[in-house]
Structure formats: C-alpha cells, structure tokens
Amino acid sequence: MAAIAADFSTAPVLPKWIAPVLLLAVAYGVVPLIGSSYLFEAILLPFLALGLAGVGLNILTGYAGQVSLGSAAFMAAGAFAAYNFNLRVEGLPLIGSIFLAGIVAAAIGIVFGLPSLRLKGFYLAVSTLAAQFFVQWALTKFSWFSNNSASGVIDAPKLSIGGLALDGAVGRYLFALTIVSILTFLAYRLVSSQTGRNFIAIRDNETAARIIGIPVLKTKLLAFAISSFIIGVAGVIWAFAYLRTVEPDGFDLDRSFQILFIIIIGGLASIRGAFFGAALIVVFPLGLSRLSGFLLGDVFDSGVLDMSQRIVLGALIILFLILEPDGLVALWDRIRRRLLFAWQST
Amino acid sequence: MPLPTYALGAMEASVYAPEVFARGLPSVLQPAHLSEGDAGAAGSTANAAAPLLSLHGIGLAFGGVVALADIDLSVRSGEIRAIIGPNGAGKSSLINVISGVYRPDRGQVRLAGVGYAQVPTQRLAHLGVARTFQNLALFKGLSVLDNVGSGLAYKVRSNFAGQVLGIGRSRGERYDFLSCTDQILEFLDLTAVRDRLAGTLPYGLQKRVELARALVAEPRLLLLDEPMAGMTPGEKSEMADFVRAARDRFSTTVVLIEHDVGVVMGLSDRIAVLDYGRKIADGTPDEVRNDQRVIDAYLGVASDNEALSRDEARAGI
What we know:
heterodimer, A: mainly alpha, ABC transporter involved in vitamin B12 uptake, BtuC, two-stranded antiparallel sheet, 14 helices, 4 strands, B: alpha/beta, six-stranded mixed sheet, four-stranded antiparallel sheet, 10 strands, globular
C-alpha cells in the first residue's frame, strides 16, 4: 500500500492550527443554531461516528500498515461494553463507561492483532475477519450482553454529562462532537510522535525497522490497541448518540468494509482523510437519492432507484480512485494549492 | 521477547534475494594457506585489542545451494574492513549473517567478545551495530529528518501516552532527537533536504540518508551493504569521503561490501575477497591487488574456460 501522507508534503501557508480551530468554532458556535434536526440526525451524527472510526482504522491500516476487516467488531465491542458498564456498574459516570468500553475494545483488538506478528497483507485481513464473526456471534449467542432482551436489541441509555441532559438532537451532536474532537486531536498528536513514526517505519520497511531497534512486535500490538480503542468509542457514539439502540446486526461486515472504504477514499495515513471519506460516504448517497428521486421519481419505482443509486455510487468510487488514488485529501490539497497560487499571482 | 526468527528469516529470504551460485566447495577443500594468513594477521594485532567482530567457520546454505562455506573473518576496532567479490560471491549473505537477518547453519559470530549462533536482530542497535541495505530500505512516507531520527528509536523509553500529551521523558527525548539528527544531517550535508519526504529524493541522496540513519546512533560497528552501488564516479568518491569522515569522527568500525574494487582499494584498511562463498584472500589492499586468486576470480581463468569447452565438446560427441 503505497500511501504517502499528504499531511507532510504540503507547505502550510497559514499556521496549521487555524483551519481546525475555525472549523471547531463553526461546529460549536454556528451549526447548533442553524442546523435542522434532519441535519443532525441523518448527516452529522453518522458522519462524526464514522469519521472517528475512520481515524481509528487509519492509525492501524494507514499508518502502521496492518490491514483490518474487523472494525465493526470493535465498534460492537465498544457499544455493548459501554451499555453493560452503564447498566451494571452503579454510579459510574457515562464518560467512565465510554472510557472503559474503549479499553475493552482495545483488549479485544490486541487479541485479534496477535496474528499480525506472523501474517501480513491479505492474510492478516482474512484473520481479522475472525474478530468480525466471533464478536457478532458472541453478542448474539449470549443474551447476557444485551441484558436478556428478547430481540437482542437494546435501548441506549440517555446521554448526560454531570447532570446536564444531552438528549435532543443538538445535545447528542455536541456530545459526539466533543468526544470526536478530543480523540482526533490526540490521534493527531500520536501520529506525529515517536510512536507514530515507528508505525510508519514498520509499514514502509519492517526489516529495516527491526534492525534499527524499533520494537516491532510491541509496536504492532500497540497500533491494534490504540486503533481498537478509538473504533470502540466510535461504536459507542454510533449506538448511543446516532441510532440510540444497540444491536449486533448493526455492526456487520458491511460496516467494516464501509470504514475501510472511508479511509481509502479519504486518503490513507491522513487524519483529515478519515473525515473527508466519512463525509463522502454519508452525504453522497443521501444527495444521490434526493437527486434521483427528484429527476426520475416519476419514471421508476423506488426499488429500481435504490439499486441504480448503488450502481452509480460504486461507479463513481471506482472512477474517483482511478483519478485520485491518494484520496480526497490529495485532491483537496491540490485544489487548495491551485487556489493559493491563483490568489498570489493576482 | 521470543523472536520467531526462523519464520522471519524465511520471509526475508524472498525480499532480500540470497546471493546464490551453483558451485560451492566443501570446507575441507579450502586452501590451507588462508588459515596461515589469518593466524599471521591475528598475531600482529593480538597486542592491540581483541577484534570487535569475528566470524568463525560460518556456513550457510539455501537448500542445496551453498552461499557461505567456512568463513573466518576478524575486524579490528576502528578499521575500515572491506569485503569484495564478484556477483553471487556471498557478500550480502555475509552481512545478513552478521546483522542476524540470516541464521548461519554452522559457525559463530563474536561481537565484542560475545558469541552468537544467530545475532539477535532486535537487539542489534543496543549492541552498537547499525547497517545499511543494498536495496534502499528507507521509510518512504517519513521525512528525511524522521528517517534519520528513527535510528534513535531503540533508545526511546517514553510511552505513547507521554508522547501524545508531551509530558515526562518524551520532552527530553524529542530534544535529543532533534539535536542529534540535525547534527548528523549537517555532517552529511543533508540539511537542505531535511523536511523532504525520503521517497522523493534522488537515489544518491537516499543512499546518504540511509548512511545518516545508521550513523545517528553513533554505532561501534557500521555495516554498509554496497553503499556506492549504482552511483556515478563523483558520487562514489563523495560517499567514500563520508565513510572515512564518519569513521574518524565517531571512531566507528566499518565493514563495507562493495563491487567497485577501485574505490575499495583507496578506502579500506584491510580487504577480504569472497568467491563462490569461500574466502580466497584477506589482507591489505596491496596484498589483495597482487593475489593471483583474486585476479582469477575477477577476470576469470583461462583453464576453466578450456575445461568448460572440453566438456561441451565431449557432450557434443
């Protein structure tokens, strides 16, 4: 996987922190005031959850070079662990449940990361499928996980932090936004730290990494642990803030693939890329469905429309990957450079 | 930490294609004069110091193909020791044995007085050994600075949480990282490309970045696997200057594999010549230059060709 982080190659014209700070200012200050409930429920909440999951998988796959198809399993582990901590541990604040859920997901990640010490590439990807099937099976099989609910579907607890109820669409959005922002910032710090450089070294040349004394085995497992922690917390957001129910079937193999698509389309080894990819995956089908319903709604029935949307989406993804294999981030940087160049030359 | 060494070795075999050849003589047939020469060399240095690195009876075969047969080699502290030989002579295999990438079938590697059946690759940096690779082994997705600085990774004691939050040991380590790395970059005249991605540099510069990555930890022993392969004559002499300067500045012992005999003659203190996995000569550049076996190995031997054509003729009949 010849992914080269676009983050490193661009010469920043403005200080690096300006864009994220502006973005956060808008996200906290403007969006809650003007956004409709549809925007929060259908777009922003899934975008935040999937973007965070993408950040998690990108640390493992984009930076450390270990391909994983078990992302949805770690999301499920996080969601169900948070549910159970919240249910069974008296007096544990919600944030505590979420943190512990991340730890549980990290532990499961380490277990299913053990094959990475011997396996590489596609072989590793296939072995991570084991996590996907095992976790889903265990959650369905043992009803203890869903508090003996007959259908296996459970209702997420009401969100509140320090007595402040965050139950409405805006409240859940702010809750998700805060967690996602903090974890993304920490992830950004991580990938530019010595540990992050070790990840990239192992990805780019494992033999050389071992010879210069990078602890390869430990670092790989650490990548699995950190990645699974973040994906687990993303699972909590997905279940608690977005869907508000938790069920194993929501975390199937399709979800794992969706997260893998997000980082490939967004740009491997890029923190921003995960959010670009998530935006495309969430918004694009909605826009396409609106557009086709508007243009062709009278001609075809909804089943045909739905199917043709998938075909168009797939075709567009293929086309996009041919035109820009380094992902949306590379495209974005190119456009930005052109604009800056045009602006400077006037 | 348990190292699944045999499995890793098997995987690497495909990446770093073993230098293979069809013929290999059993060790008993090795010329006797070599051991005498070795004994003489050892005798002359016995009062100086024990060798930093010595190989004893190293044998290595890939399947039925003998890559190294009964190799003895001693490297004194502070010298530039070259290993030369024609293609497929086993030079890279030897470096891979010294750095623990391959496990020899027979023999022992002694590093600073400690003997190893297989040198522990993971601990190599701690033992003060650094190496470069014949095919570039840079981290393409990292900047030159980060590539070179990764040579210090073995020293890092802080954990990821400290690094993320910028607390504890990680601050001092970051400072050391920058100061050591910048010094080496300046020493090897790489400051101008400090922030470029390593994968985007021209070939000659990438080779130099690899040298910088090996040097940044100030190793006692530096293994260079064809550091001048594919370079122009100008780049080669520049690289030779850098190797010499590195030896002088860090008092590093250098073991160097090279194709280009001319560069090696001017650079090395002692030269060992390999051919078909055996050591056929060992000595100062002048001794090696005048050794009939070395000349034969590089230029070919007439009688060999005659024998070959006789064989062919016989096969024809």
